[in-house]
Every structure is written in structure tokens, then in C-alpha cells.
Design goal:
Residues 9-224 form the ATP-grasp domain. InterPro entries: ATP-grasp, ATP-grasp_succ-CoA_synth-type, ATP_grasp_subdomain_1, Succ-CoA_synthase_bsu_CS, SUCC_ACL_C, Succ_CoA_ligase-like_bsu, Succinyl-CoA_synth-like. Mg(2+) binds at residues 192, 206. With 382 residues, this protein is an alpha+beta fold. Helices cover 39% and strands 26% of the residues. The chain contains 13 helices and 19 strands. It has helices at residues 5-14, 28-38, 66-77, 126-132, 150-160, 164-183, 220-223, 230-240, 259-271, 288-299, 318-331, 347-357, 366-377; strands spanning 2-3, 22-25, 43-47, 60-63, 80-81, 84-85, 89-93, 97-108, 113-119, 137-142, 186-197, 202-204, 208-211, 244-247, 252-256, 278-281, 306-313, 338-344, 361-363. The strands form five sheets. Strands 1, 8, 9, 10, 11, 12 and 13 form a seven-stranded antiparallel beta sheet that branches. It has a four-stranded antiparallel beta sheet with strand order 2-7-3-4, with helices on one face. Helix 5 (150-160) crosses helix 6 (164-183) and helix 10 (288-299) crosses helix 11 (318-331). The radius of gyration is 27 Å and the shape is elongated. The two termini are 43 Å apart. 40% of the residues are buried. The protein binds guanosine-5'-diphosphate and manganese (II) ion (MN).
Amino acid sequence: MKAHEYQAKEIFSRYGIPVEQHVLCSTPDEAVTAFRQLGVNKVAIKAQVLTGGRGKAGGVKLADSETLVRQHAQEILNITIKGFPVTRILISEAVDIAAEYYTSFTIDRNARSVVLIMSAAGGMDIEEVARKTPEKIIHCNIDPLIGLPKYLAQRFAFTLFKQAEQAKRMTTILQDLYKAFIENDASLAEINPLVLTAKGTLRAIDAKMVFDDNALYRHPDVQALFEPTPEEQLEATAKERGFSYVRMDGDIGCMVNGAGLAMTTMDMIKLYGGSPANFLDIGGSSNPVKVIEAMKILLNDSKVKAVFINIFGGITRCDDVAIGLIQAFDQLQTDIPVIVRLTGTNENIGRKLLKDSNRFQVAETMNEATLMAVKSVKGETL
Ligand code: GDP
Ligand code: MN
């Protein structure tokens, strides 16, 4: 789970990491009020979206008058960054930047430990730095049994800062950031840029935190920060209903029993030149209630032009599945083409029932079914 900058900054503040005071706004009027309220000469206006690269996309601007604050706030609230429309902006005191550094803690799976990543070449081009001049990025693995005691933090801090006073400040920031990372079961705690100000102090002017979803149950306060996009909301609803659902870009809705078969179904669709709209594992059984629930999730996605139901009747009998599907589609109001491939116990009976209902396109093999689904969305006749 990702947190917004303003949320990550609240966590940073709690751990003593220096961040500017800030106000979250959703209109230009609010931004102007915030500017007055902060009572500073210059503010940074920043889009709050769950993606990086806001600066380069025009989502970060500085302003030193009410007119400019209003103008920039309006501009930023009108843009969409990497598919995320900007609905809120953060107004914070602008910092005089002497140098930009990069600092983060994340998981190094190969080393089976947390890794501290630092660079003196921080800022908006950090990806480029990593690609072209990887020697400018410092990696320090953290022994989980030792953690980050002061002597270690100090040693790491001195690799980036030569002046004692700055290294001392960095030592504290490293320890605080590590604590925030560990205590919240984060998978990333990143400051980019960590800024050396004209006055010689260090400030986190950007903040990013990503949390381990599997550990969220231990952190209700973190969980409360979750602001799902409509898509994530749909995935969460599916999860509550016992489905495993991941939305994709394509137009063929998939309903499959079993994760492996669901993956294979998506691969097959791709192989035949189509594009799956989702991954959906409805689990072992396929009773009508489940099918209806699953179909509702699929139909919620306006991109879905056909549904491919791929069922392996291992324990479940195919005639039961067919009866379930027929009952379900009696209740569903949709004329979307539905392609069904059933295999397993009593498959012949199941297929006959489906064919006789005249509601489904019925296939015997996975090849045949996939081809039907792909042709159906392309508007080709079979
Ligand atoms: P990102 O592009 O999404 O990572 O957004 P950041 O918050 O990191 O901002 C991008 C860039 O805008 C930073 O690297 C800074 O160069 C600049 N910036 C952000 N806030 C300030 C500020 O308060 N003062 C100044 N001078 N520059 C800022
Ligand atoms: Mn940044």
C-alpha cells in the first residue's frame, strides 16, 4: 500500500524527521488561504498523487504571491499525472536548496535484509543517475539483528556528508527513518530529495512510504491511510467476497476456478492476439451466488466486451456448474457475449445444458474457447 506525500510526511514528523509545515488543499481558494496561514514568503505547491515524477509532469511549482499561488494551484489541479487526476495539492513552505540528496530504506531480497540506499546526486533525475552512473549510488545492507545503532548510522552519514555538523544531522535522520520503516512494516521509506538548505540544515522535502500489505493487519493506523482508487476499491470488494481479482487493461473478462488456470487463461488470450481485462480466480466451487457476484465485478468494468468462463470440474461436477451458470445468467441483466469452456466430470451433460439454454457460446477445448473469445471482442464472426 502506498501513502501520499502528505501522509508520509505526517509519519516522518512523528519520528522526528524534519519536514516543512504544510496544508492539504483541494481548491485554489484553499491554497490561497493556506499561503496566508503559513505566513511565509514562498511556498511549494505539490500535486498529491500516488505516483512519482510529479515535478517533471508539472505537478510541483513554487509561488511567492497570492496571485501566483492561485494560478499554479489551478493549473496543477487541472492536470493528470500518469493516469492519476490531481484532486488535492499540498502547500508547504518553500525551501532554499543548496543540494539535493537521495536516501531510502527498502528490502534487498537477495541479501535477505533491509538496505539503505543513498546518493549525493538526489532529485528528479535519480533513475537516470542509477542507470548511467550507478557508482554514485551507495548501498548499505542492514543486519536485522544489529539494526541501525548510532555508530553505524554515523559511519553511513559520513559517506555522504563531510562536515561534522551535517553528518550529525544525517545520523539522526537515518536512525529516525529506519525506525519509521521498521515499526510500520514498510517496504519503502524514501526521501528524495533530502535537501541541504542554504542555512546548512537538512530537510525532507519529499516523502514516500510503501507498506507491506501482508502486515497491514498489525497497523490499523496505517490501514486507515488507504485511499483506494476506484479500481483498488473494486479489487478490495472482490477480496471481501473471497475472490482473487486483479484488473488489467484488456477487454476480455475472465472468470476461472483456480489461480493456475486463471494465469493460463490470460496467457492463452494473449497468445491468440487478445487482451485480458482481468485476472479472476473464483476459487474451488462455482455456485450461482458466486457466479453472480463474480459477474457483477466483471461487468463493473466498462472495458469488458466479452466474458470467458473457464472451469475445470475436478471436485465440482460440470453439470452442477452449468446449472449454476444458467441460474446466474437468468438473474443477470447483460447481453455481453459469454464463452464457456467446461472440462471434467460430466462435461458432456454440462455442455449440453449450456448449449440448450442458448445463452452461452460453448467450447470443448481451451484453444477453441480462447479463439471464440478473441474473435467475439474483435467483432469477427465465428
Ligand atoms: P517528485 O518529482 O514527485 O519527486 O516531487 P518532489 O517533491 O521531489 O519535487 C520535485 C522537485 O521540485 C525537487 O527535486 C526540487 O528540485 C523541487 N522542489 C520541491 N519543493 C521545493 C521547494 O520547497 N523549494 C525549491 N527550491 N524546490 C523545490
Ligand atoms: Mn521526489
